[in-house]
Design goal:
46% helix, elongated, mainly alpha
């Protein structure tokens, strides 16, 4: 998960609450985008979907499912 200073404390709290009852707590990190190159992929795909048109088609092979929020 990409670290966003504006929501970091809230994100950490929510994830901690969700995982507190787990027997095997998974490890998770909040790297900055420049520290984890795989975060660039999600940013690029999101950009393509925001631009729409041919960009959505170009990103389609990287997308397993789309959920539209209204």
């Amino acid at each position: 998960m990409e670290k966003d200073e504006s929501s970091y404390a809230h994100d950490k709290k929510i994830i901690g609450q969700a995982l507190q009852s787990s027997e095997n707590r998974p490890r998770y990190d909040f790297p900055r985008a420049h520290e984890e190159t795989l975060l660039w992929v999600s940013d690029a795909v999101a950009w393509c979907y925001q631009k729409r048109g041919r960009w959505t088609g170009l990103a389609a092979p990287l997308v397993a499912d789309v959920v539209e929020l209204t």
